[in-house]
Amino acid sequence: MIGAGFGRTGTLSLKAALERLGYGPCHHMDEVLAHRDTISDWTRAADGGPVTWDSLYEGYRSTVDWPGARFWRELAAHYPSARVILTVRDPEKWYDSVRNTLFRAISTTPVGINEEALRVITMMKRIVWDGAFEGRFADREHTLAVFAEHLAAVQREIPAERLLVLDVAQGWEPLCEFLGVAVPDEPFPQANDQDTFAAKHRERIAAALRKPALL
Question: Taking Cα atoms as reference points, which of 49, 84, 45, 33 lies closest to residue 63?
């Protein structure tokens, strides 16, 4: 299962939903941060270098969010039998959400951050900020145009029978119908609102300021 939606379109909720439906583990930027041995691989991918997708996704049954969303074309070609889910959101609300969370976080790198954390930031900038948004995220009109073209490109290039366009506010029904599975008797996951993101970011900054342990 390939998630082609940009971050802050409900990707963490979709990750939880896919794992609940048996499509886990599901890859997500949080997985990269938890398993940082792949950072150099993703940075190389962003720079156009060779990528071994089967190695990067070893152990995973699905992917959503960055960094995978940047490479949806490559992944759809490499895994031709995989279905694609494009998460969508009101563009103006999406932009404000990203600006107030991800962009604010990457724009306030503290003094004293350790080398490993700098590698993470470099990877994110290459894939997201300098990659997908061409270093112009602060230009609202430009970024909304990038967002719109991304949505159009996925729907233009992925066959309709292979693609689900999903607003996670729709809940379980469209996702379960697309996958051909029963609807769980529980609410659809709701994860990573702005307050939750802010708390997680504070934890990451605190960890990044610690000296790495000697091996």
Answer: 84
Summarised one tens digit per residue, pLDDT across range 125-134 is: 999 999 999 9
Per DSSP, 27 falls in state E
CA 99 to CA 138: how far, in whole Å? 8
Beta carbons within 10 angstroms of residue 196's beta carbon: 13
Q: How many CB atoms lie within 10 A of CB 139?
A: 13
- Which residue, among 192, 164, 195, has the nearest Cα to 16 in the 3D structure? 192
pLDDT of residue 113: 73
Distance of alpha carbon 161 from alpha carbon 171, whole angstroms: 20
Rounded-to-integer distance, Cα 88 and Cα 100, Å:
18
Q: What pLDDT is attached to residue 215?
A: 27
What's the predicted TM-score (pTM) here? 0.89
pLDDT at 51 over 90: yes
- Residue 17, amino acid: A
Position 71, amino acid: F
